[in-house]
Amino acid sequence: MIEWFSFSMMPALLLILGGLVLPLFKGISQKAYSLLIPILVLFCMTQIEAGTFGEIDFAGVSLAIFKVDKLSMVFGWVFAIMALVGNIYSLHISDTGQRVAAFLYMGSAFLVVFAGDWFTLLAGWEIMAFASAYLVFASRKEPAVKAGFRYLMVHIAGGVMLLGGIVLHGLDTGSYLFGAIDGAQEGGIAYTLILIAFMLNAAVPPLNAWLTDAYPEATVTGAVFLSAFTTKTAVYVLIRTYPGAEVLIGFGVFMALYGVVFAVLENDCRRLLGYHIVSQVGYMVAGVGIGTEMALNGASSHAFAHILYKGLLFMGAGAVIHMTGKRKLTELGGIYRTMPWTVALYMIGAFAISAFPLFSGFVSKSMVVAAAAGDHHATVALLLMLASSGTFLHTGLKLPYYMFFGKDSGLRPKEPPINMLLAMGIAAFFCIAIGIFPGPLYNILPYAVDFEPYTGVHVTESLGILMFTLLAFVLLLKYLDPENTVTIDTDWFYRRGATVFMWLANKPVALWEKTIVTLADGLGLNTLHRLSKHSQTIDTHVVDGAVNGVAKSAMKGGRLLRRLQTGIVSHYILAMAIGLFLVIAVYVLVEGVL
Amino acid sequence: MIGKLVNFFGDKKYTTIRWRLLIVILIIIIIADFMVDRPYIHNFWDAIPGWGALFGFFACALIIFVSKFIGKKGGLMKKEDFYD
């Protein structure tokens, strides 16, 4: 019997079809609907069992549409929680388009984490790119539309690389089932193309600039969804396909520090947070590269914790932008007086990302660092600790100081709408609950956990790093004042580099084209004219002459034959008799000779 | 309550108390770091009491100065209308 239903297909189906149906609802019923669907998704998550569903044989190729195991469940659970939190946060908006885009985006992210074959994955990957781009376009300002366009172009390029990689990989191995890519293929075209496509979505430098370019331009609510899904689905597929690929260790560590350095220079509050997505995803990418069970557990659990605390931080910064209309640190400050709840909830996210004891980052990030230390990657562990200090410095100190405290900007905004605070409260609850009781998170990780975060030395060492970072921050505060600048990142190559490209197109390439055209017009075209004249002469004299000659001969022969046709029957009979006589004479002669 | 707590960290009149509180916390952390068990020594720094404190302070200073140096001398920080 063909199985036709499995709960593994439900989250993607509910969100994608639910998103398409959503415009039929208006006003309050649309808002209720936007909460009902994520609640149903959470219910489905409790019912999903590990296994493969939708195995079909298509044109001789075995496919499996959905596949669920412990690793995909970790991401599925946190996606489902974030779907509900994000929708509560955006309950006040009445922009149907944004809601539909967010639903399609989340649904396609589920399609990726529950994909059983490469084609399901590709479908999810592409829908994600388009749906998420809408969340950038939806703020409708000119810089947002431009940034959204760049975002889309970069992701389409990534999607094409992924498609190319998948086809080549399928031809090499004969299988389109989604799974680990054999390390023996390292250096091959398929291996490299897929790796680059995945690294692009994980925002690994130099392929990171799409993130910090577009996320700050997105709508307040859209950025919350964006911060959760794209980079984390990329982490998921990296864990699945490239565990232990050593090249990722170097990239991961570089990323963790890259984000920290750029965050020092940044003035836009959400762009600063964007650089810390890059930095935090660096820990996960490094974990994938180390590839031990503990490192992969660390990468998975850190992704889980990260989605919630980063969502919370984006919600906090978004609340400030929503209430003040300002996004630059140089224009903010002193608003703690009227937004204390926003400050407190934001700070819970900041403590979580900084890995303070009793907060979620402490139990997840340290697993990656410990895996590096335990696997004889001392330098890696040390550099990741350096990035930890930078994380607290920016998201925990610099950003809240200049956004909420610091110089008084004179702004006196109210607290954001209650739904925003509620969503932040739920995310904050998880940040603390995971930090105090890591057991339930550890239990759902792909491998058995043999790690105890709360040892005396780990707590005192972490507190030492963090609190002395605070001391240095207070002493060096004057060097950290944000400045009214933009920072050049690798997007320079397609923003300014594009003008170089246009110059190349307008000057040397155009000149070359003109030369070719002139040559073709002069030398080429004249030769062609002469050639065609000659062939016309040949045509008239030789070909036509021959045809006419044949026709004239046929006409002469016809006239001759006409004379023989007298119309008298006795002449015809005589001709037949002579003919018969000749045939018999020939026959007798030939017979006689033989 | 939340309002008062947040106000304590923002209001200038608590600056002295905040400093004293910070110093007390820093001292407690260092003392605690000297007293804890160190069952696993994976790397050299695992054996040094007070390592976290030292590392945190210099890491923070290093990040600030190196980043600003790269930003200013490396030409990464540009005027806001750079791309317009």
Question: Describe it for me?
Answer:
The complex is a heterodimer of chains A (594) and B (84). Chain A has 594 residues and is mostly helical. Chain A folds into 3 domains: 1-242, no CATH class; 245-494, no CATH class; 509-584. Helix content of chain A is 73%, strand content 3%. Chain A has helices at 10-21, 27-47, 70-89, 96-113, 118-137, 142-173, 189-201, 209-214, 220-241, 247-265, 269-290, 293-324, 340-353, 360-374, 378-404, 418-436, 439-443, 456-475, 492-495, 497-564, 569-593, and strands at residues 51-58, 61-68, 485-487. Chain A has a two-stranded antiparallel ribbon with strand order 1-2. The mean pLDDT of chain A is 92. Helix content of chain B is 63%, strand content 4%. Chain B has 2 domains: 1-38; 47-77. The model of chain B has no long low-confidence stretch (mean pLDDT 90). The longest helix of chain B has 23 residues, at 51-73. With 84 residues, chain B is mainly alpha-helical. Chain B has 3 helices and 1 strand. Chain B has helices at 2-10, 15-35, 51-73, and one strand at residues 77-79. Strand 3 of chain A pairs antiparallel with strand 1 of chain B, so a sheet runs across the interface.
Number of strands of chain B: 1
Question: What percent of residues of chain B adopt helix (DSSP H or I)?
Answer: 55-70%
Shape, per Cα inertia axes of chain A: elongated
- What is the number of helices of chain B? 3
Low-confidence stretches of chain A: none
Range of strand content of chain B: under 5%
Mean pLDDT of chain A: 92
Oligomer: heterodimer
Radius of gyration of chain A: 37 Å
Shape of chain B: flat
Strand content of chain A: under 5%
Q: What's the mean pLDDT score of chain B?
A: 90
SSE order of chain A, one letter for each helix or strand: HHEEHHHHHHHHHHHHHHHHEHHH
State the major sheet of chain A: 2 strands, antiparallel
Rg estimate of chain B, integer Å: 20 Å
Q: Largest protein interface? A: A-B, 54 and 51 residues
